[in-house]
């Protein structure tokens, strides 16, 4: 088999892993983690920067996100001090641009131009959310933690739609200011796993 | 009582609650565990991971046997209140039972009544990334217990009260280091091996002083510069090459040698770490006094399949080829049933044969080196399929050996294949590093498969399969225990059953549905002349992942609906 079809791809993801799963958010150097404010949870007026890839560290603008996904992993950054809040993995978020008409009533007010953000740390055992794939049930793409296959629907406040996760991902309200994505409030809900990891 | 007087004790009580929940109170008359007791455990106790140092998973108790097992009934249960995979054996020492749960809890129970004495709850860090949220049990020494934690500490508890006596950090959990195994206790040393092969760590086995928690020695499973075997690695690969040692070792009391299994090389595709990669996917013979590597045997070279070989081989005196062989027996994740010999000059290959279907090996050289079919060896930039799957023919759940029947009982998985596309990816400390994207990993059922899980009975003297029991709708992911009553006890299936088979014939003699699925290890013990069988039911971790995978395969008819939540089940024969 050369490259898996969509159907196979879905199966493959659900298959999950024998001893491991994927994660890719880079950890910063110790010095950066120690910078004052780096382990503070995302704060109002923070900007978001790419967490990985060629543009890691660059501020995310709405036009950088493709409608319908994929989801992008991001860190909050204090625009005044330029400190990226990488000091705790609990600060990492996933950002995805959706059709605003698809968002439910509690999700829409936290979105900006259809863009929503959630904690990237799975509420089950604390793995990172790494996949944007077709749901196990239904045709929509969802946020997925491949550690134990939990799926979260970003259109409905990231409620759990599959897998062992006990609760939704914490939501991060967004706004657009000066052409950049900014944080409009603190996390709604608890970022992190159900019990110490 | 003044307000202040009232406040102080209540504050103290609530502080205590964070580490030790109140139970009925301390264990009275605890039996201290000595070196002699561990070497020759009383038949009614289960104080080591596999009951005895040889790792056979055999109980000499026979009051519950093939003729009365049909009358086995639950006598008490205990709900742990914890979800995820409950993988530890209930450890029993003269009427006191100790179980562990995911998230690092230890619960002390009265083994006869199920009454709780005390509970230790570890407070894990909020930012912990628990890839394998589980624990495989406490080690015992004198009047202390030892717990290895997923945030990479070893903790000593007072066996009578659960009070923390010492707490030693092993390495940094933020770098992907973690512990899930039951510590091996040898002559006052607490010996553990690290998990984290998926994070690009350098594997190790480490010993601590049981009284103080002070580190005594640490042996890396990947040799550093100047050490023998270092030449089997290229460049700096040895620093991040995996070979974790995340399961409890076994111990040869006579020669004072520990046998410890090691995991796969990292990342997965062999092309990313050229060479044989000692001592990944091996068994190491270690000196318990100083950790020195006396000998080794590598089950396969340049691992490319994620085939951990961490389950330590069983030590068995085997009658084979007209002589007694001091053997090591290991049904491997790599699908080969290995018979090795513990010779004074080192570990030697005796025989090997596939116990499930595999397309990876074309044979085994006389030295014991398996011959790989390159068409089924994952590499960079190409998708490669191989059988068995990543989970192998038998994963970490233990096989058992009966001193009565002289057979080996294997929790095997048949008809699973898998594959992935290898990729060169940068290592970021603390983040997973597989050498592939999860989107590219697959598990497939072989066309025409009629079953998945297979409980097998092998004669290691002849290499013949004596019987097998097939599970048409489930994989088999649970450790096996065998008793002198000729009962083979195992859970491991997704129908929540706990079962007893006839050790000689494979006949299913008894089964009981439990609250969840069983990935825990069954044990047999005795209190006041009554024999009990105990096991934890609590589905999760890899058993659940395989189930998810099966549930998404067309025409297999498997649902992923096993409820979670841990319960200790204890059975006895109804009189
Ligand atoms: S940690 Fe995400 S599903 Fe388990």
From TrEMBL, chain A:
Transmembrane segments: none annotated. One of its GO terms (cellular component) is membrane. The keyword Nucleotide-binding does not apply. Residues 23-42 are annotated as: Disordered. One of its GO terms (molecular function) is 2 iron, 2 sulfur cluster binding. PROSITE patterns: RIESKE (PS51296), TAT (PS51318). Its cofactor is [2Fe-2S] cluster. Residues 110-183 form the Rieske domain. Pfam families: Rieske. This is 2Fe-2S ferredoxin. It comes from Bradyrhizobium icense. The lineage of its organism: Bacteria, Pseudomonadati, Pseudomonadota, Alphaproteobacteria, Hyphomicrobiales.
TrEMBL record, chain B:
InterPro entries: ADHI, PQQ_b-propeller_rpt, PQQ_MeOH/EtOH_DH, PQQ_rpt_dom, Quinoprotein_ADH-like_sf. Pyrroloquinoline quinone binds at residues 136, 180. Its cofactor is pyrroloquinoline quinone; Ca(2+). GO terms for cellular component: membrane. Residues 1-24 form the signal peptide. Residues 46-343, 477-533 form the Pyrrolo-quinoline quinone repeat domain. Binds 1 PQQ group per subunit. Binds 1 Ca(2+) ion per subunit. Pfam families: PQQ (PF01011). The active site is at 306 (proton acceptor). Keywords: Calcium, Metal-binding, Oxidoreductase, PQQ, Signal. Ca(2+) binds at residues 198, 264, 306. GO terms for molecular function: calcium ion binding; oxidoreductase activity, acting on CH-OH group of donors. Gene3D superfamilies: Quinoprotein alcohol dehydrogenase-like superfamily. Belongs to the bacterial PQQ dehydrogenase family. NCBIfam families: PQQ_enz_alc_DH (TIGR03075). This is Alcohol dehydrogenase. It comes from Bradyrhizobium icense.
């Amino acid at each position: 088999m050369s490259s898996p079809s969509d159907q196979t791809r879905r199966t493959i993801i659900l298959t999950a892993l024998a001893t491991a799963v994927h994660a890719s958010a880079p950890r910063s150097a110790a010095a950066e983690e120690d910078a004052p404010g780096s382990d503070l949870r995302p704060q109002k007026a923070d900007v978001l920067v790419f967490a990985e890839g060629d543009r890691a560290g660059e501020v995310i603008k709405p036009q950088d996100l493709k409608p319908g996904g994929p989801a992008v992993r991001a860190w909050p950054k204090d625009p005044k001090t330029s400190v990226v809040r990488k000091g705790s993995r609990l600060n990492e978020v996933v950002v995805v641009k959706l059709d605003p008409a698809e968002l439910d009533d509690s999700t829409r007010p936290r979105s900006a131009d259809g863009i929503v953000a959630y904690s990237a740390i799975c509420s089950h055992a604390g793995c990172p959310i790494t996949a944007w794939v077709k749901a196990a049930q239904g045709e929509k793409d969802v946020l997925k933690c491949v550690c134990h296959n939990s799926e979260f629907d970003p259109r409905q406040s990231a409620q759990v739609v599959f897998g062992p996760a006990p609760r939704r991902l914490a939501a991060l309200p967004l706004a657009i200011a000066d052409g950049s994505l900014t944080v409009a409030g603190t996390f709604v809900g608890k970022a992190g796993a159900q019990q110490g990891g | 009582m003044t307000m202040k007087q009232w406040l102080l004790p209540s504050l103290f009580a609530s502080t205590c609650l964070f580490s030790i929940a109140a139970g009925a109170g301390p264990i009275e008359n605890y039996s201290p565990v000595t070196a002699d007791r561990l070497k020759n455990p009383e038949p009614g106790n289960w104080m080591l991971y596999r009951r005895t140092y040889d790792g056979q998973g055999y109980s000499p108790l026979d009051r519950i046997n093939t003729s009365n097992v049909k009358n086995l009934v639950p006598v008490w249960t205990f709900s742990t209140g914890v979800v995820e995979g409950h993988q530890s054996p209930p450890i029993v020492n003269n009427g006191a039972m100790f179980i562990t749960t995911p998230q690092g809890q230890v619960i002390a129970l009265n083994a006869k009544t199920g009454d709780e004495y005390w509970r230790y709850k570890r407070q894990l860090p909020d930012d912990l990334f628990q890839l394998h949220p589980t624990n495989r049990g406490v080690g015992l020494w004198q009047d202390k217990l030892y717990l290895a934690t997923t945030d990479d500490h070893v903790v000593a508890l007072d066996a009578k009260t659960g009070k923390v006596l010492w707490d030693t950090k092993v390495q940094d959990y933020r770098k992907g280091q973690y512990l899930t195994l039951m510590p091996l206790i040898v002559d006052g040393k607490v010996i553990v091996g690290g998990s984290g092969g998926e994070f690009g760590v350098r594997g190790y086995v480490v010993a601590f002083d049981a009284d103080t928690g002070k580190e005594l020695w640490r042996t890396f499973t990947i040799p550093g510069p100047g050490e023998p075997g270092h030449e089997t690695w290229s460049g700096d690969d040895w620093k991040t090459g995996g070979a974790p040692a995340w399961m409890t070792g076994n111990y040869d009391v006579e020669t004072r040698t520990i046998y410890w299994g090691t995991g796969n090389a990292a990342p997965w595709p062999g092309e990313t770490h050229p060479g044989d990669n000692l001592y990944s996917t091996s068994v190491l013979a270690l000196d318990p006094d100083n950790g020195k590597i006396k000998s080794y045997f590598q089950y396969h070279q340049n691992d490319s399949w994620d085939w951990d070989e961490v389950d330590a081989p069983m030590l068995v005196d085997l009658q084979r080829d007209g002589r007694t062989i001091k053997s090591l027996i290991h049904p491997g994740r790599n699908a080969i049933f290995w018979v090795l010999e513990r010779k004074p000059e080192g570990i030697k290959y005796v025989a090997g044969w596939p116990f499930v279907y595999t397309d990876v090996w074309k044979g085994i050289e006389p030295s014991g080196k398996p011959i790989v079919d390159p068409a089924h060896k994952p590499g960079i930039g190409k998708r490669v399929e191989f059988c068995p799957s990543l989970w192998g023919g038998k994963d970490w759940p233990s096989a058992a050996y009966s001193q009565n029947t002289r057979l080996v009982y294997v929790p095997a998985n048949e008809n699973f294949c898998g594959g992935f596309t290898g990729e060169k990816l940068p290592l970021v400390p603390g983040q997973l590093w597989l050498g592939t994207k999860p989107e590219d990993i697959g598990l497939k059922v072989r066309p025409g498969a009629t079953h998945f899980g297979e409980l097998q009975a092998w004669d290691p003297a002849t290499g013949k399969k004596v019987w097998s029991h097939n599970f048409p709708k489930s994989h088999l992911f649970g450790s096996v225990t065998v008793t002198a009553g000729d009962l083979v006890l195992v859970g491991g299936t997704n129908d929540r059953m706990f079962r007893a088979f006839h050790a000689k014939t494979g006949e299913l003699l008894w089964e009981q549905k439990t609250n969840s699925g069983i990935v825990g290890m069954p044990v047999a013990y005795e209190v006041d002349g009554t024999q009990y069988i105990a096991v934890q039911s609590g589905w999760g971790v890899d058993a659940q992942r395989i189930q998810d995978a099966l549930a998404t395969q067309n025409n297999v008819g498997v649902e992923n609906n096993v409820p979670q939540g841990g319960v200790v089940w204890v059975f006895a024969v109804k009189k």
